[in-house]
Design brief:
- The structure is a single chain.
- It is built from three helices and eleven strands, in the order E-H-E-E-E-E-E-E-E-E-E-E-H-H.
- The chain is α+β, with helices and mostly antiparallel strands.
- The chain folds into two domains: about 15-150, Jelly Rolls, CATH 2.60.120; about 165-195, no CATH class.
- Strands 2, 3, 4, 5, 7, 8 and 10 form a seven-stranded antiparallel beta sheet that branches.
- A hairpin with a 2-residue loop joins strand 7 (about 100-110) and strand 8.
- Helix 2 packs across helix 3.
- The longest helix is centred in the last third of the chain and has 18 residues, at about 180-195.
- It starts with 15 loop residues before the first strand and ends with a helix.
- The mean pLDDT is about 85.
Length: about 200
């Protein structure tokens, strides 16, 4: 492998926007977004809803500003923070990738998971970290971040299934355009949810 290769050894899934992995809540508890707080060096603070933290490229054709950041906000000397809560759908170790320039730090669940880091703005950096989260718990998040996340890997097990049941599962998985393991996961999840309701 050379230094220009891209790979995701051990977990082939893509990193996704935080809102595609977690339920997001802003500072007021509103679901579907985080709170973005933009404090300029001079002037009034701007507070807005942030459904996604995606600031990776310039807006074409002028290339004068970064996509999704507020227009006419002077970033020189400013402080930008994203706050709120995230809620995981399953328990496990979540892998994050943080894109940043300037000074940044991240806290999740009151713990500093990314101590203050710095990178010159013309040469941004990426930093990976992992956080264990419990399903259904709303966990506070705070930081100056453009961040993506991956769900925990599923555990591999070996089970024995009757041939006629396996045949039916394969047929239903194919009809649903899913892999066999995905379909079995859905069936088991639904079964467990039904049992909880009883």
């Amino acid at each position: 492998m050379d230094s220009y290769s891209m790979m995701r050894f051990g977990n082939p899934s893509d990193y996704k926007q935080l809102g595609d992995v977690f339920k997001l809540y802003d500072n007021n508890g509103k679901e579907g977004c985080l709170t973005g707080i933009y404090r300029p060096a001079q002037g009034e603070t701007l507070v807005r809803e942030e459904p996604q933290l995606y600031f990776e490229h310039l807006v074409a054709p002028q290339m004068a500003r970064v996509v999704n950041l507020p227009e006419d906000f002077r970033f020189y000397g400013s402080e930008v923070t994203y706050e709120g809560e995230i809620e995981a759908s399953q328990s496990g170790d979540y892998q994050f990738i943080l894109y940043y320039a300037g000074y940044t730090s991240v806290t999740i669940g009151g713990e500093t998971v990314v101590p203050e880091r710095w990178r010159t703005a013309w040469n941004p950096n990426a930093y990976k970290f992992t956080v264990h989260l419990e399903a259904g718990e709303r966990t506070p998040l705070k930081g100056a971040i453009s961040s993506f996340c991956r769900k925990p890997l599923k555990e591999k097990i070996s089970i024995t299934i009757d041939a006629d049941i396996l045949k039916e599962l394969r047929e239903k998985a194919e009809a649903d355009d899913r892999s066999l393991s995905q379909y079995i996961n859905l069936v088991l999840k639904k079964h467990l949810e039904d049992r909880k309701e009883k």
